[in-house]
Amino acid sequence: MKVHEMFAYLRVKGAAQAIAFYVEAFGAVEKMRLTEPGGRIGHAELLLDGHEFMLSEEFPEMGILGPASVGGTTLTMHVHVDDCDAAIARAVAAGATLVRPPQDHFYGERSGTIRDPFGHEWNFGHSIEKVTNEEMQRRYTAMMTGG
Fold first, then answer.
1. Going by C-beta distance under 8 Å and a sequence separation of 6 or more, which residues neighbour residue 11?
2. Which is nearest to 107 in space by CA: 84, 127, 124, 123?
3. pLDDT tens-digit profile of 94-146?
4. What would you report as the CA-atom Rg of the chain, rounded to the nearest whole angstrom?
5. Domain 9-145 is in which class?
6. What are the strands of the beta sheet with 51-57, ordered from one edge?
7. 126: CB partners within 8 A, 6+ apart
């Protein structure tokens, strides 16, 4: 199998509002949207600094539900940026909920997590140190064993 591209595809209740939030909070640019005659957004594509993600409204009749309807999400979007503190502050100012404030981590990244108003979690981080896999494992083991 050859993978040509891979995109996150978010399902939300309130797609138009979600698009407006992502534009304000993350600086997303709407690339395109397909809207049903009744107004429901069947598909939209957005860009975060040239990186694409997609979203659609919920389609309960097809079993397509977002986090707000199922009581949470099982995935986190992980986005590397120049300044995670600024990205998180901007998202919170636009209406996101702070889940974990930015902090430095053993794996060489500073990151934190927000939950958008539609239930999706976004982890924003930036590199603070280059760490080898072996050193990362050593630090992880030490952290997990209290050593």
1. 55, 56, 57, 58, 64, 65, 66
2. 127
3. 999 999 999 999 999 999 999 999 999 999 999 999 999 999 999 999 989 98
4. 17
5. alpha beta
6. 9-12, 51-57, 41-48, 29-35
7. 80, 81, 82, 83, 84, 109, 110, 111
Pairing outcome for strands 76-80 and 51-57: unpaired
- Distance between CA atoms of residues 110 and 103, nearest Å: 5
Q: Which of 10-14, 51-55, 74-78, 130-134 comes out lowest in average pLDDT? A: 74-78
| Amino acid identity, position 104 | D
Three-state SS for 119? coil
The pLDDT, as a whole number, for residue 75 is 86
pTM exceeding 0.85: yes
Which structure tokens are listed for 35?
């809207």
Domain ranges of the chain: 9-145
**What is the distance between the alpha carbons of residues 143 and 126, in angstroms, rounded to a whole number?**
21
Of 8, 26, 47, the closest CA to residue 124 belongs to: 26
